[in-house]
Write a structure and sequence with these properties.
Order of helices and strands: HHHHHHHHHHHHHHHHHHH
Pfam family, one: Polysacc_synt
Membrane topology: Multi-pass membrane protein
Subcellular location: Cell membrane
Number of helices: 19
Distance between the termini: 42 Å
Main location: membrane
Organism: Novosphingobium mathurense
Number of domains: 1
Radius of gyration: 22 Å
Helix content: over 70%
């Protein structure tokens, strides 16, 4: 592991980002193909109404994960990059296992919130009474299947190549399960059980991979030293709170609109929205991949390289992401309806009006891929959070003020919220990089 890491560190930051993204893209390209296939099976076997129920339950679970999760992968990378650079595996291990404890605490809290939400507000969420128990247990399983900390360990070590193999378990497992369930008899409960089991399997494999890559760090004994972790990493609690709040806000942007469509418009509309949203995410997959690569690399560059390299890296990745975002929007505009018809059938082709604004939202998210890592690595997590809050405020204003009613109105509100977040993040990141550059210039010219 040490030799491989040393070899990786000799390349330029951008080349490492592209190499890591290439590894992820290879795995995610395969995942995208599998994803489209099992999504087609779900939509065609369940039909619009039951697919809507599946979507609402899945969306509720994802929202609960965001509420209870602590985005610990960001914490591991933000504070662990320096320890990895110095090969201080004891401190890295204490940090990683403390984050694992945070994940476990979040899962327990999430189960309590799930019980209150699902059994107390099932009618508001438009959940079928027959699926309430299933929705609760599915949400609990997904909360415990969170792989945030081991993901952070693998990314901090820059072993994106290894992560590809573990993450392939989910698309392969879901496609295999979808085919088997389609043959045995499709039901919402069977699909949800399969999805939960596969995600729990991935979580176990991810922890095993983290242990294999860095056995010095992934040890039970490090869990007893969580107090020392706080002493080793000043500002960790504040950063965790900020990133958790940011993840919650991000969940409002991602899952909130789906739940609103289900509650305000109906289950069938939620099914249309979910399929359009899934297709948009598949087309904008590069956003998530670049975020993973950029976040890790920015943290390492901040520790080991000059401010000029740091600034250039942010500009290069932002430019690449902006071009990819434009391509995503054009693809949705010209081929969106045909893709929806191909996947779900003629009934789902009506979602084309939802797909285009969601693609616009995805393009803004993609274009801003470098901004949040830059702010997080420069003690600007609070500023990143304020930008996300501004986006949610614009989204809410759009829902209230835009003419018309229905899923398309909500989708355009999501696009407006994403645009607002992009502009705020861009301004804040530019100011942060410029200020860092000016302060370093002043330091260099100061007389001895």
């Amino acid at each position: 592991m040490t030799a491989s890491t040393a070899e990786v560190r000799t390349r330029s930051p951008l080349s490492r980002i592209l190499a890591n993204t290439a590894w992820l893209l290879g795995g995610k390209g395969f995942s995208a193909v599998c994803g489209i296939a099992y999504l087609a099976i779900l939509t065609r076997s369940l039909g619009l109404k039951d697919f809507g129920h599946f979507s609402l339950i899945f969306g509720t679970a994802q929202a609960l994960i965001a509420l209870a999760g602590f985005e610990t992968w960001r914490v591991v990378i933000r504070y662990g990059a320096e320890f990895v650079h110095r090969k201080d595996w004891n401190r890295f291990g204490r940090l990683a296992m403390a984050c694992g404890l945070m994940d476990a605490a979040g899962a327990m809290l999430g189960c309590v919130i799930a019980f209150i939400t699902i059994y107390g507000f099932a009618t508001t969420l438009a959940l079928n009474p027959a699926y309430i128990d299933t929705a609760f247990w599915f949400s609990c399983a997904m909360l415990w299947a969170l792989v945030s900390t081991p993901t952070g360990i693998v990314r901090a070590l820059n072993r994106f190549d290894k992560a590809v193999y573990v993450e392939a378990v989910v698309p392969i497992g879901r496609l295999t399960a979808a085919l088997l369930i389609w043959w045995l008899g499709p039901t919402v409960a069977r699909y949800l059980f399969a999805w939960a089991f596969i995600d729990l399997l991935e979580a176990a494999l991810y922890w095993a991979m983290a242990r294999h890559l860095c056995p010095e760090a992934v040890r039970w004994s490090h869990m007893r030293s969580w107090r020392q972790t706080l002493a080793d990493n000043p500002g960790l609690v504040r950063f965790s709170v900020m990133t958790h709040a940011g993840g919650t806000i991000d969940a409002l942007l991602r899952q909130g609109p789906l739940l609103l469509v289900g509650g305000l418009v109906g289950t069938s509309a939620a099914g249309l929205y979910r399929l359009a949203n899934q297709l948009t995410q598949a087309m904008a997959k590069l956003s998530a991949l670049l975020t993973r690569s950029v976040y890790a690399e920015v943290a390492h560059v901040k520790v080991a390289a000059s401010t000029e390299v740091f600034r250039r890296l942010a500009l290069q990745t932002s430019s690449i992401a902006a071009v990819a975002g434009l391509a995503t929007t054009l693809l949705a505009y010209f081929l969106g309806a045909d893709l929806l018809r191909l996947i779900g059938g003629e009934t789902f082709a009506r979602g084309a009006g939802i797909l285009i604004p969601l693609a616009v939202a995805g393009s803004f998210e993609l274009a801003s891929v470098a901004f949040e890592p830059v702010l997080h690595s420069s003690e600007g997590a609070g500023r990143a959070l304020s930008a996300r809050i501004g986006g949610v405020a614009v989204l809410a204003a759009g829902i209230l003020l835009l003419p018309g009613f229905g899923a398309e109105r909500i989708a355009w509100s999501v696009a407006m919220g994403s645009a607002a977040s992009y502009m705020a993040l861009a301004a804040l990141a530019y100011h942060r990089v410029l200020r860092t550059k000016n302060s370093n210039t002043a330091e260099a010219t100061k007389p001895a």
